[in-house]
């Protein structure tokens, strides 16, 4: 075991065709806001079967613009889950609004709980953001009902969930609310380094987002280049949230392999679940049927005795060279968000008890066996050590 190489949490392997697509773009001499961005937007809109797909600098920008398009402004509130990346909540603060946390459902489903969302709605609430944790759909029918009752927008943080659907519904995640926000950050299911996209079927939202993406200018560089516009006006306070051409080209090239990557992730997750199913002391969230329609971004497990979680992670890394992560520490317990703390016991437990196992399409079954053995040995050793000291 001493010489075994590290099994990373995540790995990205580009094919020659992906590299060629970027090199061709660099040779073309047109590096931003051009035909490759349009081509990617068209391809992703078709993939999602939605009307508008707008490429952006990253998913944080997509969330910011989605909230703005939903009318979120100073003094408003946006309801978000605490088990998410900080961007979901930070984007509300960019609008001058406050993120308000609603608890997650529990250990078996780390998505936001619609009943707690309903309890957290106030006259100042403008939107609810559903995070499709690890690529598993949040409870969209119930969330939509709460939002319709309250007359507020449902935004989807689909950073984890390209090409996924809810169980029994063929519409892709990211197309169920007013807007869906995607991330192409390097460790995501479909990646280009830094990139994002907003999907919507709403023409007004699309027009707002396209305008805000580029400083609320009345015409783009590419339009002017093609002689379609001679000058421009600035209609409001906009941003530079544009994606550039090399990234768009890389994404178009990689999009063709997305479904195969997701299939492989699902196989690996099914195999993990089978290998872990008999292991005492850990709980695996979600059901097999949900795996079949998830994008399987990460492989979460819950360590039932949460005090073992950190020593277990240390054992796996130091003794067995298996990298793990925590997705996520509960956001309302982190420094910049603590003054918004309220009672969110299920999120607090998951934030202390969750660990994420290595998962990527090129993970081998041998390495997967090593990961599971390190998890099983770690849990067994730590449980026995605890029992011996009467802990
Ligand atoms: C990665 C991530 C984001 C932010 O995406 P960026 O493209 O890095 O801005 C937002 N929400 C969730 C749930 C994420 O995992």
Summarize the structure.
By secondary structure, the protein is of the alpha/beta class. It folds into two domains: 240 residues, Type I PLP-dependent aspartate aminotransferase-like (Major domain) (Aspartate Aminotransferase, domain 2, 3-Layer(aba) Sandwich); 131 residues, Aspartate Aminotransferase, domain 1, CATH 3.90.1150. It has 14 helices and twelve strands.
Which spans of ≥5 residues are poorly predicted at pLDDT below 50?
Answer: none
In which order are the strands of the major sheet placed? Answer: 1-9-8-7-6-2-3
Q: Residue-averaged pLDDT, rounded?
A: 95
**Class based on secondary structure composition and strand pairing:** alpha/beta
Beta content comes to 5-15%
Rg calc:
22 Å
Distance between the termini: 30 Å
CATH topology-level fold name of the largest domain: Aspartate Aminotransferase, domain 2
State the domain count: 2
The name of the CATH architecture of the largest domain is: 3-Layer(aba) Sandwich
The tally of helices reads 14
Helix content: 40-55%
What would CATH call the homologous superfamily of the largest domain?
Answer: Type I PLP-dependent aspartate aminotransferase-like (Major domain)
Number of strands: 12
Helices and strands, in order, run as HHEHEHEEEHEHEEEHHHHEHEHHEH
Q: Based on CA inertia axes, which overall geometry fits?
A: globular
Query: What's the main sheet like?
Result: 7 strands, mixed
| CATH class group of the largest domain | Alpha Beta
Query: Which small-molecule species are bound to the chains here?
Result: pyridoxal-5'-phosphate
């Amino acid at each position: 075991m001493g010489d075994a190489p590290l099994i990373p949490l995540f790995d990205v392997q580009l094919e020659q065709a992906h590299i060629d697509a970027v090199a061709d773009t660099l040779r073309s001499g047109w590096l931003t806001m051009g035909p490759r961005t349009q081509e990617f937007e068209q391809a992703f809109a078709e993939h999602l079967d939605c009307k508008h797909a707008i490429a952006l600098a990253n998913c944080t920008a997509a969330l910011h613009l989605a909230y703005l398009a939903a009318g979120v402004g100073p003094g408003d509130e946006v309801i978000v889950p605490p088990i998410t990346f900080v961007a979901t909540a930070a984007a509300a603060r960019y609008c001058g609004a406050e993120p308000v946390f609603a608890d997650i459902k529990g250990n078996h489903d780390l998505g936001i709980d619609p009943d707690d969302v309903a309890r957290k709605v106030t006259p100042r609430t403008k939107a609810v953001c559903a995070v499709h944790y690890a690529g598993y759909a949040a409870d969209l029918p119930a969330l939509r009902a709460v939002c319709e009752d309250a007359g507020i927008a449902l935004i989807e943080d689909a950073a984890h969930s390209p090409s996924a659907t809810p169980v029994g519904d063929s519409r892709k995640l990211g197309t169920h609310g007013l807007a869906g926000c995607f991330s192409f950050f390097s460790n995501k299911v479909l990646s280009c380094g830094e990139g994002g996209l907003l999907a919507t079927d709403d023409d007004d939202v699309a027009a707002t987002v396209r305008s805000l993406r580029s400083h609320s200018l009345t015409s783009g560089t590419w339009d002017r280049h093609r002689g379609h516009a001679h000058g421009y006006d600035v209609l409001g306070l906009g941003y530079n949230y544009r994606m550039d051409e090399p990234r768009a080209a890389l994404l178009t090239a990689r999009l063709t392999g997305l479904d195969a990557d997701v299939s492989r992730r699902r196989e690996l997750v099914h195999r993990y679940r089978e290998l872990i199913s008999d292991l005492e002391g850990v709980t695996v969230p979600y059901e097999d049927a949900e795996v079949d329609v998830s994008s399987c971004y990460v492989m979460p497990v819950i360590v039932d005795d949460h005090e073992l979680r950190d020593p277990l992670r240390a054992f796996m890394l130091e003794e067995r060279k298996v990298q793990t992560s925590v997705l996520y520490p509960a956001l309302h317990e982190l420094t910049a968000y603590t003054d918004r703390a309220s009672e969110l016991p299920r999120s607090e437990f998951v934030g202390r008890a969750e660990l994420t196992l290595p998962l990527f399409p090129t993970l081998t079954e041998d390495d997967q066996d090593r990961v599971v053995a390190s998890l099983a040995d770690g849990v067994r050793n730590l449980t026995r050590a605890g029992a011996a000291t009467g802990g």
